[in-house]
Amino acid sequence: MFQEKIKNYKQCNKNEFDLGFDSQKLSYIPGYFSTYINQSKLPNFTLLVSRNNEIAHLSSQGYSSVEDKTEIKYDSIYRIYSMTKPIVSVAAIKAIEMGLLRLYDPVAMYFDCFKSQMVLTASGVMEHAKTLINIEQLLTHKSGLSYGFNTGCAVGNLYARAGIVHKSNLDLDSFVSEVSRFPLAFHPGEGWRYSLSTDILAGVLEKVFGKGIDEILKEIVFDPIDMKETSFFVTGKEKSRIAKIYGKENIDDPAIFSSKFNKLDVANIEDIYPSDQTLVKARGGHGLFSTIGDYNKFAAMLCTGLDKYGHQFISDRMMNFALLNRVDSKYRPLVIDNYEIPGYGYNLLGRIMVDQSKTLSLTGRNEFGWAGAASTYFWVDRDENLTGVIMAQYLGSTIPFAEEIKSMVYQAL
């Protein structure tokens, strides 16, 4: 249904006005992006803004392959990296609704290797973890796990040296076991650090449902929402629709976000983020491929709580519960590597606006969403019945274009 809306979309001032937007202000958006495209700082971009489940704005520029001058299209396929996480989190929330999982369940219920964890403190001392990691801490990144690109984190540095995030040859059971060998960066629940937590969560879900995370997501999330073009692999002729990745190749490189300038160097990441079904070992923290239309279906579900038939997919009470901020003020602002995310907390799905007086760009009072390392981004505003999805393919960009575009959309309301 929504793919047809994209296919037949034509910019129309009346439609924008009817959806509550100032058409002139929306028209500034393509010009903003063209600056980065023309200066070769981004290879491409596509933006889809929807309100009341109708397209308010849709535009794209640039190339899926800069070298071949292959234009980006509305049905281009993107590696969405960490925008995989909210999808896995929704599967966990569905498991909670089904009575199969509880937030207080310790991970050690499912993996013996997490029954005894050590913590490497900031002062360099190793000590036994005070408590076991639980499901809530996996969903909210309060587990004590880390990522290799967290440069100020000693545990992250251990991850980076081991190249752990790129061990794409390991199945989830083996990957969870590998992660458990490393100490935690802090005692579970006593901090916030962006991490491999969602990969561990995916491993838990495999135990809960008794099948692979790829099957779980298809049955629990993709089929009910009609996400037909989101998967851990791309087959046959559809591979020609995959947009190339530019920028850095190693997501776990501590220097990935240190460059001040974007350069359109092709990132050869097929080995570490494979599209071939025979090479894929599905994960939870990254790995999915999707299109802008398909991901907007996911965002729309988060906005309304409804499936493709208009039936309740996640109950209102559960959705309101899932969206509550769970990061104490003493652990905010959230920091990824050295980059702060002011004004936001974190809920069971991703970031959530908690203090507009702290944020540095215009957004909604209760806006939430997440992003991916290769310049993908989405937001949901249930108060405004508004969703936005940005797709681009530059790995390690430090240009804050997503926040700026979101601000432009809000000021056009």
Structure description:
This protein is α+β, with helices and mostly antiparallel strands and 413 residues long. The chain has helices at 2-7, 13-18, 23-26, 28-38, 85-97, 135-140, 154-162, 172-180, 197-209, 213-225, 292-304, 316-322, 401-411; strands spanning 44-51, 54-65, 70-71, 78-79, 118-120, 126-128, 246-247, 289-290, 334-336, 339-341, 344-346, 351-353, 368-372, 376-381, 386-391, 394-395. Strands 3-2-1-15-14-13-12-11 form an 8-stranded antiparallel beta sheet, with helices on both faces. Strands 4-8 form a two-stranded antiparallel ribbon. It has a two-stranded antiparallel ribbon with strand order 5-6. A hairpin with a 2-residue loop joins strand 9 and strand 10 (339-341). Helix 8 (172-180) packs across helix 9.
Task: Please give the structural blueprint.
Layout: H1 2-7, H2 13-18, H3 23-26, H4 28-38, E1 44-51, E2 54-65, E3 70-71, E4 78-79, H5 85-97, E5 118-120, E6 126-128, H6 135-140, H7 154-162, H8 172-180, H9 197-209, H10 213-225, E7 246-247, E8 289-290, H11 292-304, H12 316-322, E9 334-336, E10 339-341, E11 344-346, E12 351-353, E13 368-372, E14 376-381, E15 386-391, E16 394-395, H13 401-411
Parallel strand pairs: 7-16
Antiparallel strand pairs: 1-2, 1-15, 2-3, 4-8, 5-6, 9-10, 11-12, 12-13, 13-14, 14-15
